[in-house]
Structure formats: structure tokens, C-alpha cells
Backbone:
């Protein structure tokens, strides 16, 4: 594999609401525009040779603390995207496994969304080489606490890296090579994939997520490819 291309790309797609405000639109229309980028950027990443694409759709706090109207629209747009034949056809054609990971269903009851997620996950569960993952109602702190609470007494005595990883929600994903955060605010959020990002390269851009297209992704990949990864050496 070309080491200048990240095997696992994780994206924190920030800036939807600021994009909407900038363009004189209602906040949730920024989320609608953001879902368009979800398709374009993930497809471009796979085309370039990346095998794992993980996108953070919403944290638990996003779903709990934002207005009911905004969250309702967010769920609507997600249902619309998952119902499109385009996504299903793309995953099947390219043998990509699709998954949604997180606690969204504990915060918001949306039967129609559950059905759509379950259907696409079952349709693609036998694909193993490539994975498209959406983190929804997710935060890294909750994931780590979940893993710790589900260790048996024996596992605690013999605890090692692999034993702990097997308890994570994201246990089937490899280490993240590149984390891209859009929106011009270079900070971490809610322990995002803390177990998988211990050696990640970080890329921050001023570009708001709805404006982050294939050209912006290429800039991130060019920057990543120019770096030397030492891994402690």
C-alpha cells in the first residue's frame, strides 16, 4: 500500500451552522449541505486508496443540547441520505461495509432511521476490505467507560492492548492515520476516537465542512504524504 495515502481517514466535519449563517440560511440547512459532502469526500477517499473512512455525524451533546427543531432536521436529512439507492449501490459496487456507531438511539427514538441503518448494515456486513463508518451520538469518553465496565475480572488481571480494544464500540477499526477537522477551530472534542488516534496525524483547515470538497481533501492528503511518521523512532 502507498504509505503516502492514509489507510484510515477520520473526519470531524465542523462548520455546518456557521456555513448556513454565512449564506443567510437556517442552521439545519447547513447540515443538509454537509450530508452532500459526506458522499463526495468518502467516495474520493476510497478512490485515492483509503480503505477506512470514519465520519463523526454528531456527539451525544449535539443531540441533547441543540434545539429539538435542529435535531429533528438532522435526523430527517440522515434518513433521506440512507434511503437513497445511490449509497447502497455505491457500497455494493465497491464492496464497502457501512456501519453507524454510537448511542443516538438512547437519546432519540427514531424507528424509521433504525430500520434504514439496520438494512444497509445487513446488506454490506460481509464486505471486509473497506469500511464506511458514521459515528452518531458518539463520544470517546463514553466509549472508553463502556469498554472498562465490560472487562471481566480475569481480563482486568491480564489486561493488554488487544483485550481492551475488543471491548470498544470501534473494535473492528484499525488505528487512524489521519484526522481531518474542518471549520477553523483546531481543538479536540469529547475524546474523539482517543484509543485509535494515539499516533494519528492531524490536519486542521479553515474550510467549513459544506465547502470541503475533493480538492480540499487532496490538499489534506498532500500534506499528509509530505510528513515523516517516526512512531517513536
Residues:
Amino acid at each position: 500500500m502507498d504509505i503516502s495515502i492514509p489507510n484510515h481517514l477520520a473526519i470531524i466535519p465542523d462548520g455546518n451552522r456557521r456555513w448556513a449563517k454565512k449564506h443567510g440560511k437556517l442552521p439545519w440547512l447547513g447540515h443538509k449541505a454537509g450530508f452532500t459532502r459526506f458522499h463526495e469526500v468518502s467516495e474520493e477517499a476510497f478512490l485515492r486508496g483509503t480503505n477506512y473512512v470514519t465520519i463523526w455525524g454528531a456527539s451525544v451533546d449535539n443531540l441533547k443540547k441543540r434545539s429539538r427543531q435542529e435535531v429533528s432536521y438532522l435526523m430527517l436529512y440522515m434518513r433521506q441520505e440512507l434511503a437513497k439507492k445511490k449509497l447502497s449501490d455505491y457500497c455494493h459496487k465497491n464492496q464497502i461495509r457501512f456501519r453507524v456507531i454510537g448511542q443516538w438511539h438512547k437519546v432519540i427514538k427514531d424507528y424509521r432511521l433504525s430500520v434504514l441503518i439496520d438494512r444497509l448494515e445487513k446488506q454490506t456486513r460481509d464486505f471486509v476490505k473497506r469500511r464506511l463508518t458514521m459515528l452518531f451520538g458518539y463520544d470517546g469518553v463514553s466509549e472508553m467507560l463502556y469498554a472498562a465496565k465490560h472487562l471481566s475480572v480475569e481480563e482486568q488481571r491480564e489486561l493488554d492492548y488487544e483485550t481492551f480494544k475488543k471491548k470498544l464500540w470501534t473494535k473492528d477499526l484499525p488505528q487512524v492515520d489521519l484526522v481531518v477537522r474542518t471549520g477553523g477551530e483546531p481543538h479536540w472534542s469529547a475524546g474523539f476516537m482517543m484509543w485509535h488516534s494515539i499516533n494519528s496525524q492531524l490536519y486542521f483547515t479553515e474550510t467549513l465542512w459544506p465547502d470541503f470538497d475533493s480538492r480540499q481533501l487532496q490538499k489534506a492528503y498532500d500534506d499528509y504524504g509530505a510528513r515523516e511518521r517516526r512512531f517513536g523512532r
Remarks:
- Residues 27-47 form the longest helix (21 residues).
- The mean pLDDT is 93.
- DSSP finds eleven helices and six strands in the chain.
- The radius of gyration is 18 Å.
